[in-house]
Amino acid sequence: MSARVIPIATNTFREAVRDRVLYNLVAFAILMAGAAVLVGQISINMERLVVINLGLAAVSLFGVVIAIFIGIGLVSKEIDKRTLYTVLSRPVRRWEFIVGKFLGLSGTLVVNSLCMAAGVYAALIYVSDHHHLLMTDSYVLVALYFIVLQFVMVTALALLFSSFSSPLLSAVFAFCLFLIGSFSEDLRGFAAMSQGLARWVTTAITYVIPNFSALNVISSVAHGEPVAAKLVVANTAYALFYAGMALCGAVLIFERRNLK
Amino acid sequence: MNALEILALEKVFSVGFWRKQPRRALHPLTLSVQEGEVFGFLGPNGAGKTTTLKMLMGLVYPTGGSAKIFGMEIGDPRVKAQIGFLPEQPYFYDYLTAHELLDYYARLSGFAGAAVSGKERKSRIEAMLARVGLTGAGDVQLRKFSKGMLQRVGIAQAILHDPKFVFLDEPMSGLDPIGRREVRDLIEQLKREGKTVFFSTHILSDAETLCDRVAVINKGELRGVGSVAELTRNVQGKIEVAWHGMSVPAALKTLTQECSCAGDMGRAVVTEPQLDAAVDALRRDNLRLISVTPVRSTLEEYFVQQTKSQTPSQSNSQKGAYA
Amino acid sequence: MKPSRSITWIAACLLAFFLMGSSLLIGRIDGMRARASIEDVLYVRSSSALKRMSLGYTGLMADLYWTRAVQYYGLKHHTEADPHYELLAPLLNLTTDLDPKLRVAYEFGASFLAPKSPEGAGEPDEAVALLEKGIRANPQVWQLYHALGFVHYKERQDYMAAADAFRRGAELPNAHPFLKVLAAKMAQKGGEFETSRMLWTMTFDSSDDKMIKDNAANHLLALQAEQDLNGLAKIIDLYRQQTGRNPQSWREVYSANLLPGIPVDPVGFPYVLAPNGEIYVLHPEKLKFLHKGIPPGYKPSAESEMDARS
Fold it and tell me: What mean pLDDT do residues A118-122 have?
């Protein structure tokens, strides 16, 4: 079983890496980090804050865009261009295809994030006093780790949508879910203030939307505050469970699909 | 045991988002292919050939009926290890080289891990590339391949794992005559190796030369199955009589309208029962008989005849005649 | 050939399992994040910056901050024994800067910024400033004048300012009739029970927010109980004058024709008559704003305090 999942994953990784779109976006994100340095210099004593806030926001946003477009592109393109036919006519199960694609994409995004993180840290060193990083700057790694967890969830969602929907719609859905999910804590607050049936329905919905707000610790990390270890563990488990859920959905749908 | 056994396989697509309209792509199809045969699946565009193939490959789920390959249900992973598939107008991962592509497919077919070492896999791929005439193109990215080269890579991936049964969907499409010749040779080679080949096409001359048997399909319905000879046999028993002479005997003219003279040869087409009378007519006029030959229609004529609109009941009776 | 049944079952079961797991984890994570998410919000304290960041969706942003304010208050109120609501004023100020017409935010400030801990933040001046801001933005809303007068009266004991607020509100065409009466009463500083009852009744009537209404209702219950206790104390006095001793039970008082029956407190429990003539409430934790008639030795435990508050 894994003998087939792994080649699919490595192939996906290779495809993503050789896709020029990826490079453009990564370059852009690194440019953002540079821009952050400039902007920081305008507001005195705020450079570090701006670099971390802007840098991590750029990594997060661009990463999500990359995750969505490459994730959707890869599966839809495969179905559209019929490369999938020669794969599935072999002893490859449909679920192996989905899981392999997911692993390949996640791997790509991790590598991607590392590149962009390097850019952020470079900018941070540049604006720090005597070019030394502080102890609290290690918390930025936690924020980055959470961002990677976000990517993993978004990738799973992108795969879920592209297993049944057109590329454009899938991209739109995935992006909308990302925006809504960033406010999921507040949505639960809204739901708690309503009554009766509306309350049940809205609360149920807020539990199904991805909880991206908990994975966004950029502002607290920018202020040098640590993140509780308990939260790191809980968020990791949550991201894996949520991605698992989305992938199961993708498998269920894709298993049934007639490939025209 | 037949290599391929299709039983009442059918497909109805539901088209449309809100009110699903059914669209029948394939009427119940019953067909069998013997091991070692080269079987042609003929039909105009949109006849249902590709749909049938996709169902056999497990890409599309049939709405009725079943099919078995070497006695195993389609969709069984064990089946997939024994078959190779070349889709219509294939497209492969642009960014990979031919070698990487075949390596990928090899791994997916199980040529990896403990069973097969990297070296073995590599040599097998090299052999395959040589076989399809792509030696030296192994390290070129597929985005740079011509159509003919892509087709050859496609065939390579279909036979890479030495399957017993090869399915090809329009394997000659888009190829120049040399390319077509090469694919034909390859198919013949496969036959000599004892493999079963099932390919769909709308190019009849290829089918005529290559296939042991063919099936003709139109608008999702099977119109006829049999060897080329059977299908082009003269049903109506027409016979062409040729003689040396410059005129047509009057007696012959009364038998048939189809007579003519060209140069010093006369030709007439008569039915079998009329043959004796025709020969007598010629002898009475002292005309020398040159030949008596049964008239064969070409596969093309048969094809065109079958693909003209017909009611289902008519075609069923024809199926009875040939299957 | 059909889609594999075993795959379908496995995937469906896994999906259900993951769904349950992720929902549980969300609950856990929310708990861990509660404080953090609210303090996150206040990293931007400048209203103008916030307005710009809203990209025009100031109403939505205001709703967000309002939700946070309510959650902030609710969380502290229910989980801390000695809550201090330092962030409530900034949260409410940001909310109302984003949406100056959000009436409920001003009323919330009146009910929960002004009173002392654990009921509120103990910042009556902040409440007054907030309400004055609200009145400037919504000069036709009588409820805001009522709220302002209330704060002046109850928390700051500034009767002249209270009277002024009530008077300004009474001048509005659709004002509640009580406003005029209250303006007059403030000037007199008299009739405390009635004044308080009127104020709390108006608060209850004028607001749609559940928390504000509950708060007002509890105050009214305590008021009723206090009135009862005063009245009952007078009756006990009368009994002592008549018989020269303290009554040992309500039955004796009833037999002496001083009471129509056994007196029951506003939450439905009979008042307790102590041998020394003192009257107590049976369940003081159910009448949380009551400061009289608490049984001796009653120590409000932290849990029962919090229970009572919910």
Answer: 80
